[in-house]
Write a structure and sequence with these properties.
The protein has 327 residues and is an alpha/beta fold. The protein is built from 10 helices and 14 strands. This is UDP-glucose 4-epimerase.
C-alpha cells in the first residue's frame, strides 16, 4: 500500500513522510516546491514536482503508484498573509482540494487525512477549545481550511470516502537537524533567526490578562504532530472508526514569555525581548484539548518545551548562514 503526501517537501509534510517511511509504508510526494525543499524528501521517496491544481499529474501520480490513501498537508498556510491574498489562498487551499478529491474519485482512492487548522475556530470565548466549539474563522486561511473540511464531508455523502481532519495551532521544533521551519511568519524561526544574526527578539503585547501578560497558545512538536497523522492513516487502513475532526492540542498552553525564557536558557544567549504594542486581533489565550485524539490516535505531547526549543535551535545552527527563508 502506498500513501501520497501532498506538500511532503515542506516543514510539516517532510516530517510526516519520514514518520510514514519509518513505519514501513511506501510513500510518494507531490509538492510544487513553492515553500518546500526537494532535499527534505528522502532519496528513496519519489518527489513529483507539481501543483495540486494540475489535475492530470495528480491523477497520474495516484494511478501510477497505486495509491490507497492521501495525507493532505499542502496549502497556503499564512493566516495574516491570506488577508492580503485571499484569491491565492482560496485557489491553493480550496480549488486544489477539489482537484485532489476529483482525482481521488477518478482513481478509486477512498481514504484521506486532512491537515486542517485550529484557525477554523477564530477567537473562541472558552477556556479550552474542543471539537464541539463553534467554528468562526477570522481569515481567508481559516475559512479555506474549514471549506476543505466541508468538501470532505460533502464528497463522503456522495461516494465512499473515509476521512478525518486534524486541527492544530503552532507547530514547532524539528525531528532532525536537516529538517527545519523556515517560515518568516512563525514565532520560533523568527526568534531563533534573530538571535543567530545578533538581533533582539520582540514580543507583541505584554499587558494581556494572562499570568505573565503575554499571549498563551498551544505549541506542539512537529514530530508529535507527524505521528498523529500516521496514526490516523493507520486507523483508517484498519477500518476503525474515526471522528470527522480531532484537535491536536496541549490542554494547557504556553505563553510567549515562557518561550522566550526557555530560548534564553537553551541557547545560552542572554537577551531581553523588546515588548511592542499588541497586534490587532490577537486574543489573550487560545488552547485546545486533545482528549479525542489521545483516545483514538495515541496523541501525546511527547516533547517538553525545552526539547522543542533545543531541537529547533540545533536545526537552525546546522544550516548556518545558508538559511533559506521563504519570501
Amino acid at each position: 500500500m502506498t500513501w501520497l503526501v501532498t506538500g511532503g517537501a515542506g516543514y510539516i509534510g517532510s516530517h510526516v513522510v519520514r514518520a510514514l517511511t519509518a513505519s514501513g509504508t511506501d510513500v510518494v510526494v507531490i509538492d510544487d516546491l513553492s515553500t518546500g525543499l526537494a532535499h527534505f524528501v528522502p532519496a528513496r521517496v519519489e518527489l513529483v514536482t507539481a501543483n495540486l491544481l494540475d489535475y492530470d499529474t495528480v491523477r497520474a501520480t495516484l494511478a501510477d503508484h497505486r495509491v490507497t490513501g492521501v495525507i493532505h498537508v499542502a496549502g497556503y498556510k499564512y493566516a495574516g498573509e491570506s488577508v492580503k491574498y485571499p484569491l491565492h489562498t482560496y485557489q491553493q487551499n480550496v480549488t486544489a482540494m477539489a482537484t485532489l478529491l476529483q482525482a481521488m474519485a477518478d482513481t478509486g482512492v477512498d481514504q484521506i487525512v486532512f491537515s486542517s487548522s485550529a484557525a477554523t475556530y477564530g477567537t473562541p470565548d472558552v477556556e479550552l477549545v474542543d471539537e464541539l466549539t463553534p467554528t468562526a474563522p477570522e481569515s481567508p486561511y481559516g475559512e479555506s481550511k474549514l471549506i476543505g473540511e466541508w468538501l470532505l464531508r460533502d464528497v463522503a455523502r456522495s461516494r465512499d470516502l473515509r476521512h478525518t481532519s486534524l486541527r492544530y495551532f503552532n507547530v514547532v521544533g524539528s525531528g532532525s537537524v536537516d529538517l527545519f521551519d523556515r517560515s518568516p511568519h512563525n514565532l520560533f524561526p523568527k526568534v531563533l533567526d534573530m538571535l543567530f544574526n545578533g538581533s533582539v527578539p520582540q514580543i507583541n503585547g505584554g499587558d494581556y490578562d494572562t499570568p505573565d501578560g503575554t499571549c498563551v497558545r498551544d505549541y506542539v512538536h512537529v514530530s508529535d504532530l507527524a505521528s498523529a497523522h500516521v496514526a490516523a492513516a493507520r486507523r483508517m487502513e484498519a477500518g476503525k472508526d474515526l471522528e470527522p475532526v480531532y484537535n491536536l492540542g496541549s490542554g494547557s498552553g504556553t505563553s510567549v514569555r515562557e518561550i522566550m525564557t526557555t530560548i534564553r536558557e537553551v541557547t545560552g544567549i542572554d537577551f531581553e525581548p523588546k515588548v511592542n504594542p499588541r497586534r490587532p486581533g490577537d486574543p489573550a489565550r487560545i488552547v485546545a484539548a486533545g482528549d479525542l485524539a489521545a483516545r483514538d490516535l495515541d496523541w501525546q505531547m511527547r516533547h517538553s518545551l525545552t526539547e522543542m526549543v533545543a531541537s529547533a535551535w540545533a536545526a537552525r545552527q546546522e544550516v548556518g548562514q545558508d538559511y533559506p527563508t521563504v519570501s
